[in-house]
Amino acid sequence: MEVRFFANFIDITGSSTCQVDGPHTVYSLVEALCLRFGEPMARLLLNEQGEPLHEDLFVLVNGRHIRQLNGLQTELAPTDVISIVPVIEAG
């Protein structure tokens, strides 16, 4: 699947997109991104308790906010496009 990044996520990843294979839910995608990009990514994705997701993020699956779907348990397919947008960038 394609993950699209915005704002300070690009600084961490070095790119505005990346391909990720394997995660079947948004929750497992967050875990995979934290493993792949380390502590800087975890600080942006995880909340103060160290749990997904930080409240200042919009996570879209094929253009739909995960709140309109099944939240962190939203199932993902290999052809999905996931956008991770800091609230400040979405306004």
What does this structure look like?
By secondary structure, the protein is of the alpha+beta class. The chain has one domain (2-90): Beta-grasp domain (Ubiquitin-like (UB roll), Roll), CATH 3.10.20. Helix content is 32%, strand content 22%. It contains 4 helices and 5 strands; from the N terminus they run βαβααβββα. A 5-stranded mixed sheet has the order 2-1-5-3-4.
List keywords for this structure.
91 residues, alpha+beta, Ubiquitin-like (UB roll), 5-stranded mixed beta sheet, 4 helices, 5 strands, 22% strand
**What is the CATH first-level class name?**
Alpha Beta
For the secondary structure, the number of strands is 5
Largest sheet: 5 strands, mixed
Estimate the strand proportion. 15-25%
Number of domains: 1
| Helix and strand element order | EHEHHEEEH
- What is the CATH architecture term? Roll
Question: What gyration radius follows from the Cα positions, in whole Å?
Answer: 12 Å
Neighbour order of strands in the largest sheet: 2-1-5-3-4
Describe this structure in a few short sentences.
This protein is an alpha+beta fold and 91 residues long. The protein contains four helices and five strands. It has a five-stranded mixed beta sheet.
Topology at a glance:
Blueprint: E1 2-5, H1 8-13, E2 17-19, H2 26-37, H3 39-45, E3 57-61, E4 64-65, E5 81-86, H4 87-90
Parallel strand pairs: 1-5
Antiparallel strand pairs: 1-2, 3-4, 3-5
Helix pairs in contact: 2-3
